């Protein structure tokens, strides 16, 4: 009897054990299924989230290349990004805006390992809490984090062969020990650019043609330090410092010029330039409850200094030309002082209320001096020498409220008030100056409805102000030839922009976006043709002046269709998009507000009229193929094409680029070989024709076919948490330097 009972106990115990084992097996299978069906590309209430942490695309490359593979983002020049082919990009890292100019941001992205990135967030219509301008979109790069003490780092080496050979290297180091977090990076490299120009302009009676090249050697040094101290579990104190130094000595622009088909002269412009940028930010953050509510404050200081000294000489090559020369010094110093306070209150019903205020004071000092060669010496040109001082105060305040009405429906509304007081003066020239005082109320709203697990639709609206860059306000000139140059304009005004979008996403893989953008009092860089008449002799000198100025309004109606999906068990990863845009540009420019009367001369300008209605398109395909079962060999094949498109400045002819790359992963080493623009089809070619018969052509060949070899080595504990990144107070200012 006891034996039977023992057998029964063993039998039932075995059944229970088997059931538990089966249950655990089912749980494991369930976990595996969840992992396999992980949503890589997701639409949140106000942004798209691309989770790249476990994607093979993110292995062994840099952040710049990874962004090129990100849905909705594209880069046609290898330097800047667009969202859906139209909106300019403002970069944030862990919620903190990068405080660097465009070239420094490119260097930073190309020297940041892609393995450090957790996800990329694309905000097509930024909310009121973001300090952005016009139709700018936000890309927030969220870095990987862990609470493990220790250190790690990444060493990168790159060699690029285009027209010239350009090496670069960088190192990033992270350390975390209990309450202290520290991370830093440093990169350096040399980059020598070659650009080939063809310039033509004129009308039915006259024609100017210029052919030549520009060689621009650059040495770059950059880095950052971030320190974070956890005072207690609710309070943090952080300090960050960013710097960049660029040296470009010995840049040469060499142009041969023809007038009406007859060889006239040769222009050689030699330039020495250097840029220095230092930014300091002190941050304090306190959590006010367990729901995630917090108060943050920042104090920032930004110092930017760009020095440029050039010598321009024109040598006669025929009896109709003579020797001429000028010396030009164009320094620019920017000091910015900023502070902001933000409070985010979270409620148990999953709603969020945010309020904040900010203050920015910017002072720019640009003492431009130009000396012309007269007789046997250089004499100061008082008309083109300007000591321009610009001061700007911006007081901003915002409030937003976000609520989750149900599991399917969420909404967010907000508004931003910006009060701007600015003044610009040229020392000793009281007729060149202005004072402006204007306020802007900028509403924002977004509604997100998750129809079901596979369908999501969002509507967004925002209003923004676009202010000119500080360098664009300095009334100085940049010369291609003595009669072909860029003229900055201190009288440019801010434009008002209104943006609307409807986004639809299907199965977190396919998306469609319809957008409408309207810009009021828009500005751009436009070509003005004219002539300078010597009143005594009647001699005429014709010129082409690219002036930055307000011209009128523009409207853009866009449609973007895209897909981001992995096939055949992640063997083939694809990212395709097609952008269609119907745009209208309307306005005119009849005068140059920067023109100064010259005794004995009369200046006559031809009006520039803009009346463009056009359909623009852009297509992009990115493919990543896994070549081995060990996941250590990958092949990338990418292609984009931008058919001819009309813009304010003229017609930009078709551009395209075919790129291939292959990478090999060996433990902590990753080797990446890239060939960009294989067929040399990425060329800037802009042509303008006015109804009065005047024309202008600019063709720039930048030798974008490039062979790159990258080696990356990761060392230390790769699960280390980075120092807390914070949003700086002068975020809105830095992009305008």
From TrEMBL:
Gene3D superfamilies: TonB-dependent receptor, beta-barrel domain, TonB-dependent receptor, plug domain. Its main location: membrane. The keyword Membrane applies. Residues 287-713 form the Outer membrane protein beta-barrel domain. Residues 1-18 form the signal peptide. It is found in: Cell outer membrane. This is Outer membrane receptor proteins, mostly Fe transport.
